[in-house]
Amino acid sequence: MSPPRLYNEVELSALGMAISTVVTIAEILKNNGFAVEKKIRTLTVDMRDEPGARPIPKAKIEIALGKTEKFDELRGAEAEQNGDNEEQN
To answer: Which InterPro entries does the annotation name (predicted)?
Structure first.
């Protein structure tokens, strides 16, 4: 079995009403020390409900996050804590 691929960045994106959820997720990751903000981009995209329909502009956000230097350490501590919780149950 090959080792898992490791990535140092992730891009979160959302349209319309889902934007607030993506922003919340990004803030949680940043506040807990897992990620740093690399780039935020806002734009408007044209969406169609069905083929041939008039395009409807929708707000879109793209947030690029990078791993912090403490990411692996934090993940290890979290996994250890979760293991302790499972043993108690």
So the answer is: Alba-like_dom_sf, DNA/RNA-bd_Alba-like, UCP030333_Alba
